[in-house]
Specification:
The chain is of the alpha/beta class. The chain has 2 domains: about 30 residues; about 230 residues, P-loop containing nucleotide triphosphate hydrolases (Rossmann fold), CATH 3.40.50.300. Helix content is about 40%, strand content about 15%. It contains 12 helices and 8 strands. It has an 8-stranded mixed β-sheet with strand order 1-4-5-3-6-2-7-8.
Length: about 325
């Protein structure tokens, strides 16, 4: 009996001891100050970046490359009804194109004089309004004159102009305009491309350009071909309302100028003032019909003296 009582007493003591310990533990835990809870900062996802961060680190807009206008790709198929169009950007034009870059300069006034002479000659001497611009020898400025004449005519009230680059040896019309073209007259002459696919319209609405295109292997043969003859005839019949200006090689350099001279109405000869030898000029003019010569332009002449004094000071 005493054993049973001892066992019960022991069990009661163990039970009380456990509760006491648990109570002590709870009391201790309650008596300790609770530690501050430090929650981790939320991680900012890339798509949740605050606006103010972007304001401190602006993203620079991607700049376009300077407009040396890139080659225009060739058309697919026959190229019908795919005329190109360009803007004549003053920032890209050669400074010698005074008809646009300096329209009120004395140099521009001399181009207008040439324009007036041609317009007055048109009824009798230019039935088809086809004009060849050439020179005696290279580097006399014939392309500059051809371009300025075309630009000046196109700025008139009634005149339309088609400028054709026939200088297959050293084409420079595209360079003066700050443009590049990978198709043009040479491509037309060596394929069955439609003429409209190689014409280039400009933002000067009365001016259209037929660039040279890819440099051909046989320039003389191309310009002497039947397709070239038919092209000139086609231009004369299709564009009766406009002047057609051909920029070609110099007379003493190649035979191309001679061949074209026989197919146009009038010829403008450009000479470098004070530099071109007189005998060379005489020899060059022997190869063309003098009756077709509309005039001789002395490029680089000092027009600020004598007869030009009044225009300069008024």
């Amino acid at each position: 009996m005493s054993r049973i009582q001892d066992a019960l007493k022991k069990a009661e003591q163990e039970s009380l001891g456990t509760v006491t310990a648990d109570q002590d533990k709870v009391v201790v835990e309650e008596s300790q100050p609770s530690a501050p809870v430090v929650e981790p900062e939320p991680e900012i996802q890339p798509d949740e970046i605050p606006v103010e961060i972007l304001e401190h680190e602006p993203v620079e807009p991607q700049q376009d490359e300077p407009a040396v206008q890139k080659p225009i790709p060739a058309p697919v198929g026959s190229g019908r009804k795919t005329s190109q169009k360009i803007d004549l950007n003053l920032a890209l034009l050669d400074e010698h194109l005074v008809s646009l870059t300096e329209p009120f300069s004395l140099a521009s006034e001399q181009v207008k004089k040439l324009r007036t002479k041609i317009i007055l000659s048109a009824p009798e001497r230019l039935p088809n309004k086809t004009i060849l611009v050439t020179s005696a020898v290279p580097r006399e400025g014939k392309t500059t004159i051809a371009l300025n004449l075309a630009l000046s005519l196109a700025q008139g009230l009634d005149e339309y102009v088609l400028l054709v680059d026939c200088d297959f040896r050293k084409p420079e019309i595209s360079k003066y305009l700050g443009m590049e073209f990978n198709r043009g007259l040479s491509n037309y002459l060596t394929s069955d491309m439609d003429l409209s696919s190689v014409l280039v319209k400009t933002d000067l609405s009365r001016l259209t350009i037929l660039p040279m295109g890819i440099a051909p292997a046989k320039p003389s043969e191309l310009l002497a071909s039947d397709r070239m003859k038919h092209l000139i005839e086609d231009l004369q019949s299709r564009y009766q309302d406009r002047y057609i200006i051909f920029d070609t090689t110099s007379l003493m350099s190649t035979t191309e100028a001679d061949m074209l001279a026989s197919q146009v109405d009038g010829i403008v000869v450009v000479l470098r003032y004070g530099e071109t030898d007189r005998e060379v000029v005489k020899q060059a003019l022997k190869n063309i019909d003098r009756e077709k010569i509309l005039g001789i332009v002395f490029n680089g002449a000092d027009y600020r003296s004598s007869s030009f004094y009044y225009q300069e000071t008024r």
